Amino acid sequence: MNKSIINIGTILISFFTVAHNGYAAIALDRTRAIYPGNEKSIVLNIKNENKKLPYLAQSWLENEAGEKIISPFLTTPPLQRVEPGDKSVIKITKTANISQLPQDRESVFYFNVREVPPKSDKPNVMQLALQTKIKLFYRPESIIPEKNTRWDNKIILNKENDGYMVENPTPYYINLIGITGAENQPLEKNFEAVMIEPKSNKKVKSRTFQKPFIRTINDFGGKPILGFHCQGNRCVADDI
User: Fold this and answer.
1) Burial of 176 (C-beta count, 10 Å sphere; 0-12/13-18/19+)
2) Peptide bond into 198 cis (omega under 30)
3) pLDDT exceeding 90 applies to what percent of the chain?
4) Is the pLDDT score of 17 beyond 90?
5) Where are the domains of the chain?
6) How far is CA 67 from CA 71, 112, 146, in A?
7) CATH assignment of 15-143, among 1.20.120.1200, 2.60.40.10, 2.60.40.3360, 2.60.120.380
């Protein structure tokens, strides 16, 4: 390689997609966050998985358009140093503008935490700054459910030629990650996961089945499966 042509200095690369915590030094304790409307703030836990080096943790929130926001939520501290192997917290606090959000349904935002590695003392080193991004759901006090309540069983599936029109009559977001024809059938690799907004319908491309089963993601990151029975093209959830 001709050194007169190529001279690589220190390069900082930021991945703006979700970074798997298994490869990140700064690890987050969850894959999604729920902000109950009756709470003044919530706390997310982070840990520096690197046992030798300190890392900076930079955090912020975005709206659905991917724009950084400081209202109706704030993250504190926005930047902090986490020593090797240590744990820390990031607090998310609502502002006065929270009242401008709909109070009859959830709203979604995105929480980001980016790790910033210490500057290397070696020349020509490529440093990677990994970023974790998760959904933050604001759940107004008026729709906070009782413990262990499910709402995926309120979904209605309407068969169409190339999939289903999915009705979500609930005030909650539904994260649908698969539709299969049997309870233990593996999820199809080409199924495109969708997030269905509260009180809305969304077309989902999929194979159709005589008895469909859906898999969703719940508040805790679990992936429950639920069977449906159909009359004609309209399918409703089995009793649970």
Assistant:
1) buried
2) no
3) 82
4) no
5) 15-143, 152-237
6) 11, 12, 33
7) 2.60.40.10
Give 152-237's CATH code, choosing from 2.60.40.10, 3.40.47.10, 3.20.20.70, 3.50.50.60. Answer: 2.60.40.10
Q: Give the tens place of pLDDT for each residue, 167-218.
A: 999 999 999 999 999 999 999 889 999 999 999 999 999 999 999 999 999 9
AA letter at 220: F
**pLDDT (tens digit per residue) in 96-145:** 999 999 999 999 999 999 999 988 777 777 777 899 999 999 999 999 99
